[in-house]
Amino acid sequence: MDMKKRIHLELRNRTPSDVKELVLDNCRSNEGKIEGLTDEFEELEFLSTINVGLTTVAHLPKLNKLKKLELSDNRISGGLEVLAEKCPNLTHLNLSGNKIKDLSTIEPLKELGTLKSLDLFNCEVTNLNEYRDNVFKLLPQLTYLDGYDKDDKEAPDSDAEVYAEGLDDDEEDEDDVDDEEYDEDAAPGDEEEEEGEDEEEENEEEEEEDLSGEEEEEDDLNDREVDDEDDEEEERGQKRKRDLDEEGEEDDDD
């Protein structure tokens, strides 16, 4: 895939001014030049063009906010003086695996006053005597060279990638949000709500039992009332019978 098409796909319906990170690794550059990248990418902070066949960075647009530039595994052998003009706020530059043979090639980088980290792995320049000491003298603004400072202390996160650390912070914020959502899912309030629902169900069952008990009591009362009425009627019947018997006896006496 050529670089222009890759940039179009990377935009994903965004405008260039919305893009802060652009990864163009392993695509094809035309005649070793950066194509399709314009100064409309004014908010771009991270640009990666690893293994795209670049021979020059002369065609970089003006990217004032660019902080990290990945140029490893290309065929760049010089022309780095344009970086101070095109990317004046660059803090991290990776030139590993390029055709940089001597210190004079990287000397123009001293104009990048904000440059903190430079990588030159697998470049011929690293084979020079006292390579590290000479680079730190040539570029005094550097904190890390090939992932280590002047005292051979390793940079945080391998090469002190401030931009990457910023991304990590964003990821941590997202993780915190996810944790909060998880906590909300398992919040004690939900358990209390479930317990409340269980109590309501138990209360409903008790009410139903109470109602059924009251109905049974009413039925018992009705049954007793019916029995009492039957007993009274029977007594009245027996009394009438006795009265009739007594009247019959009086008639016999007469």
Automatic annotation (TrEMBL):
GO terms for cellular component: nucleus
Keywords for the protein's UniProt record, in alphabetical order: Leucine-rich repeat, Nucleus, Repeat
Repeat listed as a keyword: yes
Record's compositionally biased regions (Acidic residues): 157-235, 245-254
UniProt xrefs under Pfam families: LRR_9
Extent of Basic and acidic residues compositional bias: 147-156
Region (Disordered) location: 147-254
InterPro entries cross-referenced by the UniProt entry: AN32 (IPR045081), Leu-rich_rpt (IPR001611), LRR_dom_sf (IPR032675), U2A'_phosphoprotein32A_C (IPR003603)
BP terms from Gene Ontology: regulation of apoptotic process
Compartments in which it is found: Nucleus
Alphabetized GO MF terms: histone binding
SUPFAM superfamilies tied to this protein: L domain-like
Span of domain U2A'/phosphoprotein 32 family A C-terminal: 128-146
Chief location bin: nucleus
Keyword Nucleus: yes
Role according to the record: Multifunctional protein that is involved in the regulation of many processes.
Family matches, as PANTHER family: ACIDIC LEUCINE-RICH NUCLEAR PHOSPHOPROTEIN 32, ACIDIC LEUCINE-RICH NUCLEAR PHOSPHOPROTEIN 32 FAMILY MEMBER A
Sequence similarity: Belongs to the ANP32 family.
Name used for this protein in its record: Acidic leucine-rich nuclear phosphoprotein 32 family member
Source species of the chain: Oreochromis niloticus
Encoding gene, per UniProt annotation: ANP32D
